[in-house]
Amino acid sequence: MLLGLGLSSCEKKEESPELPPKTQQITVNGKNYDVQYLINGLSKITGISPDKFYFDETEGVFRNTMFSDYYRPETYASIVDR
Questions:
Q1: CB 79 within 8 A of CB 45
Q2: Ramachandran angles phi, psi of 54, nearest 5°
Q3: What is the pTM of this model?
Q4: What is the phi/psi pair of residue 55, to 5°?
């Protein structure tokens, strides 16, 4: 029993090499934006932490993980640029 416990604790975990995160971009009103740039701007506008937002590629909107609301990039992208 101790031998089995000892062997299981030595098991190696296969780790995938860390790749740099790919910068996701979207086009809003003919201008390219980094998704994270817009999330940071949306965070400043709403006062909600940026880690609570994500871009829903299927719907083309930003969603808030705390609520069921969504934000259309074309509505506030020009405000973020100010």
A1: yes
A2: -150, 160
A3: 0.69
A4: -95, 120
pLDDT digits (tens, 9 = 90+) for 20-45: 566 789 999 899 999 999 999 999 99
> Which residue carries 């992208």 as its tokens?
77
**Nearest partner of 55 among 78, 37, 30, judged by Cα:** 37
Token output for 82:
């100010």
CB 60 within 8 A of CB 73: yes
Tokens representing 76?
A: 């506030």
Rounded to whole angstroms, what are the CA distances from 61 to 2, 33, 66, 69?
Answer: 54, 13, 15, 10
Which runs of consecutive H residues, i.e. helices, occur in the chain? 2-9, 35-46, 73-80
